[in-house]
Amino acid sequence: MGEEYGRTVVVREFDPNKESEKVEAVERICEVGPSGKLSLFTDLLGDPICRVRHSPAFCMLVAEIGDEIAGMIRGCIKTVTCGKKLPRNRNKSQFTETLPVYTKVAYILGLRVSPSYRRMGIGLKLVNAMEEWFRGNGAEYSYMATEKDNLASVMLFTDKCGYSKFRTPSILVNPVFAHRISISQKISVIQLGPSDAEKLYRRRFATTEFFPRDIGSILNNRLTIGTFLAVPRGSFSPDTWPGSDLFLSDPPESWAVISVWNCKEVFTLEVRGASRVKRTLAKTTRIVDRALPFLQLPSIPNFFQPFGFHFMYGLGGQGAEAAKMVKALCGHAHNLAKEHGCGAVVTEVSSCEPLKLGIPHWKMLSCAEDLWCIKRLGEDYSDGSVGDWTKSPPGLSIFVDPREF
């Protein structure tokens, strides 16, 4: 609570039964872009907490002035990998694997302040209040993501809230065309059940930074369409699949895996501010692509009306041909998105991810460097072998939780 320009600012928990329409109104106002430029609008489909509600613990706070909602902030908490260590009891001659080090981390999402109430310190009040909720629920770190060019957001968190720049992953967006993508005949794509997928992820990717300890909850969530494994044709098939344990005991030389999350069921996006010429050009490409699908033309979906998308997460693999395997999986994901009526397939990976080369994307739609900022909330740690995670160097890979995208 505070006094700004003679008006009392009250920060409290959001009431979904009474304030959904007010919050959605603020969302719309905040997302209006500069005049004459393209803007991305988000429709939360009537659920203001849709982008955090699938996390183990979540909260939404609002800043209220009188009977008006001046701003809001969302946050969630989960346990993730922040490093790795050697087992305490191990046979040095046989030791080949490391173990994950977990920490409880909080994530800030969707900080909004109405244009009418900016420069009043409301954003700072919301962040401070959310961090208190994080601490009260045992979080050891807090992090957030923003565009590196969003100077107001970067300055708020780094200059006023004590966050430091941490990671710069890449957001890669590929449009869904009117034609299906052809997948190499040399590659087989196998769908894994949630239990099998969890075994594979835990055995091979549990030490990846930000890997969620509750990976099983994500894989079993209704929004996960499936987990898909790419292998050389002839090595395995759905009929000869032996299970993840036997697969990992003797894997093919190259393979790759991804899981797909259906963001379309959570929210939709819409591009506004495009000129009539751009709209006409996009429409023309779709018409030609539908009429002549065998040409495999890169048509532009109708991003100027609300569209949904699928998010690819848990990307990983090994071997000299792994990038080609990833490309096949992306093609499979594209075709799934086409069947579900989506406009795009999106993923986010470390900027130095070796498999990034296999991910088809349009540069004009993608973000080469998303910015993650992090803050240490306390001095007590569940495991001190990592030290201060905020000062650790980036690894080759990073796990992006689809529940927070």
Radius of gyration: 22 Å
State the shape: globular
Broad structural category: alpha+beta
Strand content: 25-35%
CATH topology name of the largest domain, in short, is: Aminopeptidase
**Overall helicity:** 10-25%
Spell the H/E element sequence.
EEHEEEEHEHEEEHHEHEEHEHEE
- Count of extended strands: 16
CATH architecture of the largest domain: 3-Layer(aba) Sandwich
pLDDT average, as an integer?
Answer: 91
Order the strands across the largest sheet as they lie in space. 1-2-4-5-6-7-16-8
Please write the CATH class name of the largest domain.
Answer: Alpha Beta
Describe the biggest sheet?
Answer: 8 strands, mixed
Low-confidence stretches: 32-36
Count of discrete structural domains? 2
* Count of separate DSSP helical elements: 8
Domain N-acetyltransferase: 9-184
InterPro entries: Acyl_CoA_acyltransferase, GNAT_dom, Plant_NAT
Keywords: Acyltransferase, Transferase
Organism: Acacia crassicarpa (northern wattle)
Observed structural traits:
405 residues; alpha+beta; Aminopeptidase; 8-stranded mixed beta sheet; 6-stranded mixed beta sheet; 31% strand; globular; transferase; Plant_NAT; GNAT_dom; N-acetyltransferase domain-containing protein
